[in-house]
Amino acid sequence: MRIAGLGVLALVLTACGGQSEQVAGVAQSVPNVVPAAKVSVVSQGSDQLSPRSPIVVKASDGTLQAVTVTNPQTGNTVKGDFSPDKLTWTSDDQLRYGATYQVVATAVNKEGKPVEQRSEVHTLTPKGVVTPTLLQPASNGTFGVGLIIGVKFDRDVPDKAAVEKSFKVTSSPEQGGGWYWVNKREAHFRPQSYWKAGSTVKLETTTFGQEISGGVYGGADVSATYKVHDSWIAKADGNTHQIQAFHNGELVKTAPTSMGKTDNTPPRGPTPTFNGTHTVLGKQAHMIMDSCTYGVCEGQPGYYKAPENWDVQISGDGEYLHENLATVSVQGSQNVSNGCLNMNTENAKWFFDNFNVGDVVEITNSGGPQLNINNGHGDWAIDWSAWQAGSALHG
């Protein structure tokens, strides 16, 4: 009786332990089964993945060991990073439109047994692409306080508000500002007043992969960082026939000048300089000025083709600060030029040496019309309230 009792006790203990089961009166061991690792790819087989969205690979019942994503059309490998727990891999490269990416992922379970998953990810193919370029290209140099930045597109933008939301401008120190759509393809940005000397300004677009309208998507993004140098502002008055230069607010130069003529003197009649705020667009030490570049060609009244020195361009249609020895006798007393601001050699060379892209030339009392925003960078001539109304978001 004592032996039989011990046998019953042993069977009860074994059953309570849960580590074996009785088969034909004999306890048998059952091994634990470790599940195989599983791999899943976000948007696998989808034709709708936006190229601005990452490819994401996930593991369950194990961890990722290796992930390779390749564009077979280009042979390029897509870069990406694992999460700290190795459960997720996320791409951090920019994808392409209309591409097929081959994904090869290996995961291991808790026993270290590997499993490989092969799949494809397809990015969407847009009906059209609107691609931006920079109005003011990036440069290793610096710019004046009148710097105008902006974005130009290679086709009309159907939804300007949606695109404007994707623009980002930051400045240090912070100065705010606003966008103004010049037309259906071009938008400019400026603060209410000139940039502060010494500022750093960064422009970025984030339209890539964004649907603009009806299946049309944004093209490759652009960005640039601009450094603003000291404040250089010239003030030219058509009544006094003088041009003054201010460096960081201090008057450092006054010179006589001759602006564009406003009377009907033959052979061309009035050629007044534009009123308003101009900015320097570029400069050349020596150039041939040819009136045919704006429609007055050889054989027509008023045609000229002459070498000019120390040329600082301030408008798109050919206004310059430059040397003109033929008008020295009336510089400071009469406006007789074809629209440029004429000076003698010494003064023209001084402005050439000190004024650079983005520096400001404010012209008053010239007798001419207001400088247009499309004529170079006439943006500063627009009243701030009107500028704000030119935004697709706030107009």
**Spatial strand arrangement across the major sheet:** 23-22-21-29-24
In this structure, how is the largest beta sheet organized?
A: 5 strands, mixed
Q: What is the overall number of helices?
A: 4
Low-confidence stretches: 1-21
Radius of gyration: 36 Å
CATH class of the largest domain: Mainly Beta
Work out the helicity level. under 10%
Question: Going by CATH, what is the homologous superfamily of the largest domain?
Answer: L,D-transpeptidase catalytic domain-like
Terminal Cα span: 101 Å
- Number of structurally distinct domains: 3
Mean pLDDT: 89
Count of extended strands: 29
Strand content: 35-45%
Silhouette: elongated
Secondary structure category:
mainly beta
The CATH architecture of the largest domain: Beta Barrel
- The CATH topology name of the largest domain reads L,D-transpeptidase catalytic domain-like
Describe, in plain words, how this protein is organized in 3D.
The chain has about 400 residues and is mainly β. The protein folds into 3 domains: about 80 residues, Sandwich (Immunoglobulin-like); about 100 residues, Immunoglobulin-like (Sandwich), CATH 2.60.40.3710; about 150 residues, L,D-transpeptidase catalytic domain-like (Beta Barrel). About 10% of the residues lie in helices and about 40% in strands. It is built from 4 helices and 29 strands. The chain has a 5-stranded mixed β-sheet, with helices on one face. The protein has a 4-stranded antiparallel β-sheet with strand order 3-4-8-7, with no helix packed on it. Strands 6-5-9-10 form a 4-stranded antiparallel β-sheet, with no helix packed on it. The chain is elongated. The termini are far apart. The N terminus is likely disordered. InterPro entries: Big_10 (IPR041280), LD-transpeptidase (IPR050979), LD_TPept_cat_dom (IPR005490), Transpep_catalytic_dom (IPR038063). Pathway: Cell wall biogenesis; peptidoglycan biosynthesis. This is Ig-like domain-containing protein. Keywords: Acyltransferase, Cell shape, Cell wall biogenesis/degradation, Peptidoglycan synthesis, Transferase.
